[in-house]
Amino acid sequence: MILVFNIGSRRLRAETFVGILQADAVLFEKEHIMRKDEQRRDGFNSRWGFVLACVGSAVGMGNIWRFPYMVAEWGGLTFLLPYFLFVLLIGSTGVIEEIALGRAAGTGPIGAFGKCTEIRYGKTFGQYIGLLPAAGALCLAIGYTVVVGWIFKYTFMSFTGELAGLGQDMAQIGGLFDQTASAWGNNVWLLVAVAATLTIMAFGVSGGIERVNKVMMPALFILFVFLGIYIFTLPGADAGYKYIFTLNPKGLTDPKLWIFAFGQAFFSLSVAGNGTVIYGSYLGRDENIVRSARNIAVFDTIASMLASFVIIPAMAAGGAELSAAGPGLMFIYLVNVFNGMPAGTIVEIVFYVCVMLAGITSLINLYEVPVAALQEKLKLGRIASVGMIAVIGGTAALLIQAIVSGWMDAVSIYVCPLGAMLAGIMFFYVAGRDFAEKAVNEGLDKPIGPWFVFLGKYVFVPLSLIALIAGALLGGIG
Fold it and tell me: Do residues 477 and 263 touch, judged by C-beta distance below 8 A?
């Protein structure tokens, strides 16, 4: 009896040992597959590649055709002081949060929101919510495609001298833009913009997006500096600089000033729960997110200031008043001013090349969100995903040419701040403090302070709601 028991006991121990080995083997295989998946996923190869790509996504038309107007409209430093304050606040909360959310989830807004709700409610609920900012990125990209098509056309016309040939005849200059912005008015250049943008994207994150931004962003800043130096030499430009540095303390008591300064900072830094999240998902876990967010905020602000140092003094030198923002400023009034300058043709070439670089890098970021979603959810290859989005984006952009202004207003006023607010709620409230701090602290030499979660929960998220409400009431604030 004793002998049988011992034999049975040994057999039982042997079977248990084999079972443990099998379980370990299965676990090892799963971890190995997960590691291979992580290795297969494309990403940024360097910290500066990531920062420049994020700067490229943030520096866009808002920096060039809206920021200088807001500075002029609200009185130079009177506008800039609250603007700088909001850049600091949003850069140290919303930008950090969206990068950390993307990196922690290793995916775009759909998967990232799902990861947050998985902690409490299950993944599916969050994924459905994440569809909103993902769809918002595609809708914004479609409208932006129309605008980048205009930029391609005007860049080409600056090189051929056709823009300079218009002289300062406002009827001809305005007529050109009216024709360009009409229904089916810019089909060829719109398709060129789609082809150029998505060809870059077809080469992937490191081979396409990172590589191109490493060239385009430094080129943008260098060209803007040279343009600013030239404008500085023009008679009458000094009036523009004086205005930029004018401070009216009484103006700081106007609540609308603070609302519009906040709106400009909010939209300029591209916190919308989509583009920054997807770029964050490509960032290595040993990278310092806080430092990256700071660099993004700094360079975006420098780009806005450079645009102001070019456009406001240029308008002053040309004897024109900066009384309009948006496409009218960039495609009508500035053409008139540049054509009245010495060496105006060269100025136009440099300016529109800068605008084209800003437009392409922003458009790449917007299209990357749906492209990545197709790769992750439908398991399509990079080329197939890019091709599908090219067809969808290009076709839709062709159809909305006559209504692009209303299209862009609807998306930017409602979808962008809602996406930013939802991302903040997911990160700070649903996933919670432990998740948020762990996501940010990876790669930091020193853990982030408790101020981060506090400001994120009780300042940034409510401000995102204010951006949504104020934008709806005022017809847009950024």
Answer: yes
d(CA 33, CA 36): 5
Residue 444 and residue 117: Cα distance in Å, rounded? 26
CATH number of the domain encompassing residue 411: 1.10.4160
The candidate with the shortest Cα–Cα distance to 376, out of 123, 139, 108, 132, is 108
Quick: pLDDT tens for 303-335: 999 999 999 999 998 887 776 678 888 899 999
Its pTM surpasses 0.70 = yes
**pLDDT, the chain, mean:** 90
Q: How far apart are alpha carbons 136 and 118 in whole angstroms?
A: 23
Domain presence at residue 309: yes
- Count other C-beta atoms under 10 Å from residue 35's C-beta: 10
Residue 319's pLDDT is what?
85
Asked if residue 186 belongs to a domain, the reply is yes
Token pair 């949060």 in the structure block, residue: 97
Main-chain phi, psi angles of 409, to 5 degrees: -60, -45
pLDDT value, residue 321: 75
Spatial CB neighbours of 134, under 8 Å, sequence gap ≥ 6 = 108, 109, 110, 274, 369, 370, 373
Cα dihedral sign for 255, 256, 262, 266? positive
Does the residue 38 lie in any domain? no
Task: Identify the domain containing residue 410 by its residue range.
Answer: 43-474
Rounding to the nearest 10 degrees, give the CA dihedral for residues 370, 461, 475, 84. -100
Number of domains the chain contains: 1
Q: Tell me whether residue 6 is in a domain.
A: no
Token reading at 30: 């799963």
DSSP label of 449: P
Round to whole Å and give the CA distance between 303 and 298: 9
